Amino acid sequence: LPIASVPNGTDQAESQTRSSSELLSAGPASATTGREILASPRARRRANELDIEIETVVGTGDNGRIVEEDLIKAAAHRSNPVDADTRRRLLIAARMVESINTIPSFSLSVEVNAEKLVKFYQETRGRSEESGESRLTYTDLLCKATALSLAESAEMNSVWKEGTVQRCSAINLALAIATDRGVVAPVLRDVHILDLQDIIALRHEVAAKARANKLVTADFDDAVGALSNLGMYRVDSFTGIITPGQTFILAVGQLRSRPWAEASLSIKPTIILNLSVDHRVVDGAVAALFLRRVVAIIEDFEAYV
Fold first, then answer.
1. What is the rounded distance in angstroms from the CA atom of residue 66 to the CA atom of residue 47?
2. Calpha distance 245→225 (Å, rounded)
């Protein structure tokens, strides 16, 4: 998919259409503030769903127009402890519906021979425990493999924004973390250049903040994609839902012994990976090459770190 340039202006017909749309979405003046409420119909529906008084929201669209994203952010910042869990589920629901309705996605799946990854994990974990360092997990290794693959694919390290594909200047990967209040996905930044101990420390830090409910908005910003590992729950395979504003989610199943056929049939430890991708950003071949790179790193992890 070629990267489109952002237009410097619009033709007269488009300008007239935009003006008509904005006029139709303008609501009555607020009784409390006296200002005209300019909001899209979709934003008004979302305000009702999230139980938000729309006149209290500051719009970030053209001419101060309130857009759906403004309502989602407003819901995230409310702090009423009585309804916090309900509002959190509403926010998650809104984001997931937005993803399904607005992101044309496709999925790729592959089974990976993880024999060398297991060996590396066992040897490295043993050394870490002997030295008193934080405990290594397979998630740490998978984050590293994904970030290294992103570093070699400018096409995948891109997002759909403002109607065009935009390349990301940094390599930031969100990590799904389960808490007693639901799943959150804070960002791990620049994982491709971190050594394993730094990755472990960073994961511990964001997981502790997530479980203590201390994450702030900045902890979720600028991720190009996400990693979600449900292997510890004995899930073999699943398909993740892309977070709006991101390009992909890599869903990881459990590592277990399965039949593996190469020159002969044997039993190997394998992992099933499912990659869901925003088709507006990349085509199938680009995503397949990215996934193949992730597989290559997993199959010979020590050669890449």
1. 10
2. 9
Q: Which two three-digit tokens encode residue 53?
A: 């008084």
Residue with tokens 């009423």: 80
Helix (H) or strand (E) holding 126: helix 115-131
b (16+ CB within 10 A) / e for 105-120: beebebbbbbeebbeb
Contacts of 300 (CB under 8 A, 6+ apart): 116
- With 70 as the cut, is the pLDDT of residue 78 above it? no
Under the phi-then-psi rule, with left for phi > 0, alpha for psi from -120 to 50, and beta for the rest, what region is 182? left
Q: Select from 59, 240, 224, 221 the least CA-distant residue to 153.
A: 224
Q: Which amino acid is at 278?
A: D
In degrees rounded to 5, what are phi and psi of residue 49? -65, -40
Distance of CA 138 to the CA centre of its chain: 19
- Token pair of 139, please? 């998630």
Residue 35 predicted with pLDDT over 60: no
- Using pLDDT thresholds of 50, 70 and 90, give the confidence band for residue 36: low
**Nearest residue to 73 (alpha-carbon basis) of 55, 50, 105:** 50
Query: Residue with structure tokens 């394993």?
Result: 196
